[in-house]
Each structure stands twice: as C-alpha cells, then as structure tokens.
TrEMBL record:
Annotated function: Catalyzes the transfer of a dimethylallyl group onto the adenine at position 37 in tRNAs that read codons beginning with uridine, leading to the formation of N6-(dimethylallyl)adenosine (i(6)A).
Keywords recorded for this protein, A-Z: ATP-binding, Magnesium, Nucleotide-binding, Transferase, tRNA processing
Homology family: Belongs to the IPP transferase family.
Organism: Vibrio ishigakensis
InterPro entries: Dimethylallyltransferase (IPR039657), IPT (IPR018022), P-loop_NTPase (IPR027417)
Endpoints of the signal sequence: none
EC number: 2.5.1.75
Protein name in the entry: tRNA dimethylallyltransferase
Length: 128
C-alpha cells in the first residue's frame, strides 16, 4: 500500500453499543465492506461476552478478520495492522470502501499511527 490512505470509514465504540447493526444498515445502502477491529473476534469460538455478530448478521454483511485464528495462536497489534491494511487494499481495489468496525483502540491506534520498530518477542522467554 502506498503512503496515501484510501478512503475508509471507522465505526469505533464500546462492546454492544450498536456498531454492528449500524454497519449492516450502512452496507445495505453503500458500497462498503466490513473489517472487524476486535481483539477477541480474531479468535475462533469467542462467541460469549464479545457481542460477536450472529451468523445471520455475518450472512447479511460479512466481516473480515473474524474467526481467523485458533485461541492457542498469538496475534498482536502489528499483526492486525498488517492484515487490516491488506484487507483495505483489497476492498479498495474492488471499488468499495472499507469500513472498520470495533472497539479495540490499540488496534485502531496501531493502524493509524503505526508501531515502534521493536524486535519480536523471544518465544523461548515467553515459554517460561
């Protein structure tokens, strides 16, 4: 992706505040594709306590970056930034507008501001 950001819509707020319902209504009227900005919904099976969009809601408006990893796998804000930018680029190439929906503000901040170029965590130390 180049330095020029594509047009994108951000719908951010706390859990269960109506973001999904609004996003689905907007998707019915405008050429948008939804990208989840939720650190719990990245993981498969996180259906309780997350206000995860129902199967019906996801059928009406598919959300990208939901249920992509097993809970035993790690995922960082840097991973989210990489994946979200790739999704945004793909959506824009299709002539649509990415709408990022969620409440994980660390992910939002990482996407907009980037992250410090720190080394990755040492897996041997983390295993202790």
């Amino acid at each position: 992706m180049n330095d020029k950001w594509p047009l994108a819509i951000f719908l951010m707020g706390p859990t269960a505040s109506g973001k999904t319902e609004l996003a689905i209504r907007l998707r019915q009227r405008f050429p948008i594709e939804l990208i989840s900005v939720d650190s719990a919904l990245i993981y498969k099976g996180m259906d309780i306590g997350t206000a995860k969009p129902s199967a019906e809601e996801q059928a009406a408006a598919p959300h990208r970056l939901i249920d992509i990893l097993d809970p035993s796998e790690s995922y960082s804000a840097a991973d989210f930034r990489r994946d979200a930018l790739a999704q945004m680029e793909e959506i824009t190439a299709q002539g649509k507008i990415p709408m990022l929906v969620g409440g994980t503000m660390l992910y939002y901040k990482a996407l907009l501001e980037g992250l410090s170029p720190l080394p990755a965590a040492n897996p041997e130390i983390r295993a202790r």
